[in-house]
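User: Predict the structure for this protein chain, please.
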Amino acid sequence: MILDRPYFFCGIGGSGMLPLALILRAHGAAVSGSDRALDQGRTAPKFEFLRARGIALFPQDGSGVADPRAIVVASAAIENDVPDMAAARRIGAAILTRAELLADLFNAAPQSIGVAGTSGKSTTTGMIGWILHEAGRDPTVMNGAVMKNFVTPDAPFASALVGDSGLFVAEVDESDGSIARYSPHVAVVNNVSLDHKSMDELRALFADALPKSRAITYSVADSRADLFASNLMPAPDGIVFDLGADGAKLHVRLRVPGRHNVANALAALGAARAVGVPLERAAKALESFSGVKRRFEVVGTARGITVIDDFAHNPDKIAATLATLHDFPGRLLILFQPHGYGPLRKMKREFIEAFARDLSGADALVMPEPVYFGGTTQRSVTSEDVAAGIRARGRDAQAFADRAQCGDRLLALAKPGDRIVVMGARDDTLSSFAAELLARLGT
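Assistant: Here is the predicted structure, written as structure tokens:
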């Protein structure tokens, strides 16, 4: 870790950038940055939090990139013609991608756990971090989501935890192919499903598997796995299951709902086992794991209508969320905001299939246009294209020009017993939108 040179993060508010900036700052590095959301006046509390940590913030106009000694870190969302990047090239500053910086920190750690897969990474990373914290292992954790267990009044955006043990846990991303940069001591793979890349590309990325003798397997379907979950009993506020391992059986209660979270828990238990945490102690820690932000997060209930904020943005995540919701009665009124025109174009057919298959006849879906905060993009597929495909399959789906119209439609439909679900990624304002819906219900 280079601490004697300043770091400038272009896109510092991003889910993968903010925790890296916090980790470097906690180790004494001088850190500054810029963000498009800051310039647009969005998510002000996040930037106030960064300033309180001694991180200077600048407009994304190149003015913050003035020191040629600086290491300029760019998120995947940053185009080459952004003024900060042009300024970095002009003064000869070193430029790293977010993935390159994370890989450098991760690979330098004495012991590392990398969490990969196209769904469940943030929750599994949070689970592993909490187990290791409760076991007294003092880990550093780099997550792509806020870990509720580590939130305090002084740290409301706790997507990073800084420890002194040399044990580094990180969510590692396959979306840009950078997963090949990481050399973990313990590698966790949740699943491989369609998201940012084609299935052929994903299979190639994840193909470098361990020999069977070094693998710890887990399953909710195959009792031959090293860690096997059975007798799953869903509850509105969690799920209970029996854990079988090495001939022993434990009864585990999670505070996060859904069968997919049982799989996440098994992955976390496998990682903890790989670094020597006793299984019973790890399972006990999971019982107090409170989840990560925007993963099936109940915002509140008003007039008998519950509002839920959820990160589901690819077909697998959507299917998992809908399956969890349908474990219990109540109509679903869903807003799904696609996380970009590119993903919408790539997964149009799969989005249609997921919603048409997993919505009930009573449920309703509304879609605004995909999240867009600037830059160049191809808009050949729109939300109406997806909504039309779902309607053709006999489900209630409508697209609107903007999110405000979607909210009006949801509130017009809502009746006691319904659940309003706000789904989407790459847009922090979805959480405030969900909170606004709840407030409007209350009035």
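Residues 251 and 383 are 44 Å apart (CA to CA).
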